[in-house]
Amino acid sequence: MSATHSSHTGTAKQQWAEGLTVFAAVTLMLAGILDIFRGIMGIAEDDVFVTTRSYVFQFDLTGWGWIHLALGVVAVLVSMGLFRGSMWARVSGVAIAGLLVIANFLSLPYYPVWSVVMIAFSGFVIWALCMPRSDTASLRH
Fold first, then answer.
1. Distance (Å, rounded) from C-alpha 80 to C-alpha 87?
2. CA-to-CA distance for 96 and 110, rounded, in angstroms?
3. What pLDDT, on a 0 to 100 scale, did the predictor assign at position 126?
4. Where are the alpha helices (DSSP H) in the chain?
5. What is the pTM of this model?
6. Which 3 state secondary structure label does DSSP give 52?
7. For residue 117, which of 104, 128, 130 has the smallest C-alpha distance?
8. Per-residue pLDDT in tens (0 to 9) along the chain, 141 residues
9. CA-based angle 26:31:33, to the nearest 5?
């Protein structure tokens, strides 16, 4: 009876790990798509963003637009790798989510609510990808 319980526990842990990876992939894809839109807004129309004069960081919004566009594209590509269960995608996902946190922190004065939401999304991605899982956990069946 304990062998059956042990087998069931292993399967439950594997499903939990797969669920977290899917969560991270979907969240990273959503964050990437939103960052692509944010990048396009910064490139095409600088007056969409609120500008503040007395803030420590002052950057050109068109430059920020290109940075967010590039990070968004990479985030979407990495999320596709996460759907396949690739280890490179897990490592890259943590790295790109960390870069998204930094980029959104630095752009807080221009669009504060959006930046905080994107930082939260990226934090969830980092948490989900850093959760321990068994070596056999994969999204491919």
1. 12
2. 21
3. 92
4. 2-44, 61-83, 87-106, 112-130
5. 0.73
6. coil
7. 104
8. 444 444 455 677 667 767 888 888 999 999 899 889 988 988 886 655 555 565 555 667 778 789 889 999 999 999 999 998 888 999 999 999 999 899 888 878 777 898 899 899 889 889 888 887 665 444 444
9. 95
Beta-carbon neighbour count of residue 1 at 10 Å? 5
The CA-CA-CA angle for residues 119, 67, 94, to 5°, reads: 45
Alpha carbon distance 52, 4 (integer Å) = 62
Q: What is the DSSP letter of 57?
A: -
Query: How far is the CA of 115 from the CAs of 16, 103, 104, in angstroms?
Result: 29, 9, 5
Question: Which residue in the block uniquely carries the two structure tokens 């007395």?
Answer: 54
**Apex CA 26: angle with CA 136 and CA 125, to 5°?**
75
Q: How far, rounded to the nearest angstrom, does the alpha carbon of residue 124 sit from its chain's CA centroid? A: 8
**Residue 79's closest CA among 135, 39, 139?**
139
> How many Cβ atoms are within 10 Å of 52's Cβ, its own excluded?
12
CA distance 5 to 53: 62
